[in-house]
Amino acid sequence: MIKVLIVDDEPKLREGLKSIIAWDELGIEIVDTAANGSEALEKHKLYAPDIMIVDIRMPGMDGLQLIGSIRAVDTKVRLLILSGYADFDYAQRAITHRVNGYLLKPVDEEELTAHLVQIKEVVEQEQSGSPINKDVMEGNREQFIRALITEEGLSEGWLQSAERLGLAWENYQVLLIHIHDFDDAPPGQEPDVQLKRKLIEAFEKKGRGVVFTKKSYIGMLLPFRVYTQNGREELFHELHLAAGEAGVSITSAAGLHVRRIDRISESYRSAREMIRQRFFYHSGELLFPGAERFGCDMNPHGEHSYDPGLYTEQLYYAVDIGNIEVLKTIVQSAACAMIQEEFTEEKIRNSFMELLTGVHSKLTQHHPELQSRIQERTDQITAVYRQPCVYDLCHHSVQVLEELMWQADNGGREQEMKRIIDLIHRNYSEPIKLETLAAVFNYNSAYLGKMFKSTTGEYFNTYLDKVRIDKAKALLKKGMKVYQVAEKVGYSNVDYFHSKFKKYVGISPTNYRKEAEM
Questions:
Q1: Nearest residue to 101 (alpha-carbon basis) of 121, 120, 82, 125
Q2: The domain 2-127 belongs to what CATH superfamily?
Q3: How would you class 81 by CB atoms within 10 Å of its CB: exposed for 0-12, middle for 13-18, buried for 19 or more?
Q4: Are 445 and 438 in contact (CB under 8 A)?
Q5: Among candidates 297, 296, 299, 393, which has minimal Cα distance to 352?
Q6: CATH of domain 131-280
Q7: pLDDT of residue 183
Q8: Domain 413-517 classified CATH 1.20.1250.20?
Q9: So what's the pLDDT on residue 313?
Q10: Residue 87's pLDDT is what?
Q11: Is 60 left (phi over 0), alpha (psi -120 to 50) or beta?
């Protein structure tokens, strides 16, 4: 049935048009009405009507502006415009937009019916046209687009050809689709063939573009510019809906917007380059010029080169002490360092495989219980090769390391004490307090003090003093001055350091240094 969309800002006129014509008898269906130009654009996209009846005067986007926008994306829809006597000259300007007729208000029933019957006959003839002729036309359009993209085999009359093929638009943008790996299927049932059919149904048959194939890509030449976030999200959703119905997963990219059809090769090349570099972009969005590429502006250590040994050590300690935030930062820093050194996608994947394997190896040395599930973790680690982009690769790596963290953290109080002791040995120069650690590890400070004494045999402050004095002895042996050593190991008062040192070592730090120099 022929579909009609009525556009007028007057509710009475919209309802009147619905009632004065016997639409069902004409074989015509009113799919919806719209009260303004913006609403009409949305409903045109939703219903793809065969006919639109449009008021020439509306607030905001008027009828001429609406018709111009419609024509930019749909060359097939038939347009009837409504105007008052005062707008007659204004309405005649609509001829430049290839309208199919205009009607004066109040609308005459017979006149409107005559227009509708005439348009309906033309539409039905087109819809019932020879499938062979349609295939020839579609083939010619595909061949013509491929020639424009490669800039080969074009004759001097390419502009006339574009007009003849219905490709003389005001805007052009190439959309490319890459199908991820898929299994072989019987001829005619290949997923790429099915996806192309789905795209033709969703876009080409609704006048929203022309579908074509180019080497390993499925492409669409769009008659509109995709430039807003909402527009990209909507298009991405439609593409992935079609891909889901065809049983494939895809990456899609919109190239540069151009206004001349002989420049669509530029749009094609920019889309192709983003597809080729898809590993460095987010996987869950439509790629476009200006899309966020994984960059090192997020990397606090971006100035450092990639040192696999250093990053393995850092990740190991982050996992061992259970610091998730530091873990995430180090993983991202490692990826950025690799990209700064221009690692290929393959080299980045291999490097992350080595990092995760190295951390796992170090952990199993200190946590033998982790050996029991080694095959499962090996499968998780090797999944780095299945991540579609560097963002997902980083996220997956953090998940693997977090799981290792929780699996290693099954020693109860002993594990907590190990973390606290390790923290003391690494941060002895800081003003560490039992109360602070109790808050961090979610303990009552008195209870934590008893746990610490039970585990180490020393009170917290005594243990901390002994660690600091041991570090001080090593520094004094190197010839450092006493006040420098005191500051290095966390004592701001030199006299206090002197008394502590003598208490635990038996002699003053000055004499200790002298003896060490002998």
A1: 82
A2: Response regulator (3.40.50.2300)
A3: buried
A4: yes
A5: 393
A6: 3.30.70.270
A7: 44
A8: no
A9: 86
A10: 60
A11: left
